[in-house]
Amino acid sequence: MQLRRNDVIDGAIAILDEYGLADLTMRRLATSLGVQPGALYWHFPNKQTLLAAMADRILVGVDDPVKAERWDDGITELAHRLRNALLSHRDGAELVAATYASGMTSNLARESFVGAGVRAGLPRPYAELAAYSLLYFVLGHTIDEQSRAQMKAIGALTRTPASPDTETAADLGSDHDLLDGDPRVRFDFGLRLFIDGVRARAASPAARA
């Protein structure tokens, strides 16, 4: 049976979910699909373009129109939609962050954030910057969230002192109880701070100028 482009993406995502991004290689992918590595390059000239296609697959639906009428509810809906999409696959946030950095993803999630900023009353240049800030917050938070979950799963997330100069667990910091809690609580708190900042900026004379 002829290998199709979607077959390659499906196979790559299956490897991502089982082994993680670091172990996703073109050779392993070709072996899993029962083809020679050269067959993959018929559909994707290099691994970077494959990763971009995987990111677009992960982000399908994130840039759909929001249901919320208020701009702040719209931002909240979009941010949670993006986080949920990233969490749906192992190392999803890391993969999508890499493709955004390279400018290779075609998903319009950031443009959705820009639109929400404009609806809040921000001039488009401010809305563009706000969209980048929100995108980086969601990606960074979710990368940390996924990394912690994976470390915890293999028993690598401990409370052992980081150095001989750290004598007690209390010396490791005051946020351990928070970090052991529901990551969505931390996400929602940061998101509310962001929305409050947008609201304050939109109300300032400088933003309206």
TrEMBL record:
GO terms for biological process: negative regulation of DNA-templated transcription; response to antibiotic. One of its GO terms (molecular function) is transcription cis-regulatory region binding. The keyword Endoplasmic reticulum does not apply. It holds the Pfam family TetR_N. Transmembrane segments: none annotated. Coiled coil: none annotated. The keyword Aminoacyl-tRNA synthetase does not apply. Residues 25-44 bind DNA. Keywords: DNA-binding, Repressor, Transcription, Transcription regulation. This is TetR family transcriptional regulator. It comes from Rhodococcus xishaensis.
